[in-house]
Amino acid sequence: MMTTTEKMVALMRRLKIEMNGAVTDAMREYGGGQRGYGVNYGVSLPTIKEVARSYAPDHDLAQTLWRQDIREMKLAALFIDDPAAVTAEQMERWGAEWPIPELAEQCAMQLFWRSPDALPTAAKWAARPAAEAPLLRLAAFYMLGKLAAVETVPDSVFGTLLDDRSVFGPEAVERSVAYALRECYRHRPALHEQVMQTLSHIPAETAEEVRWQVEYLA
Known about the structure:
By secondary structure, the chain is mostly helical. About 65% of the residues lie in helices and about 0% in strands.
């Protein structure tokens, strides 16, 4: 049986074969480049997911990969980790280390929302001041959007969040806000009216984006 270190080395070798300079350039324009990661091999996200799939689930390996200052290692960790083992403490720790939006978005959309602690963590982050924790808030709304489709989460939880102006208020400028509201409208028919009422409390540009998306869903 391979050790965690041996698995990491094997994974790195497979990913380096997929190096793509065009993706690296795109990441630099996006805001990543070498400013966000110590090393960026430019491997596309679908390729990272495909390579990582054969190693999952492996919580210990994911922790080791995350500690590497290499874009592909950190992203691979999201597809290898065991969501059931992801705690609020881990989410806080990883969130504090996000250098750029890509990691915040992918952590939220690929892994964190499936954690047993996802909902309280997302609600906590979404209520943080925008100037204080922009990437945590960005991730929080993506997590809430994903959780809106989870049937075991009662409507009342989302109803409470929609009424909270520290969550959906004037500071709700993250691009993930529109996603969260759209998904809530899409999966929570009982909250349609409340979602539409919430639009009067968030920035006009975001509210307009939600309106046309909701019209498309109708």
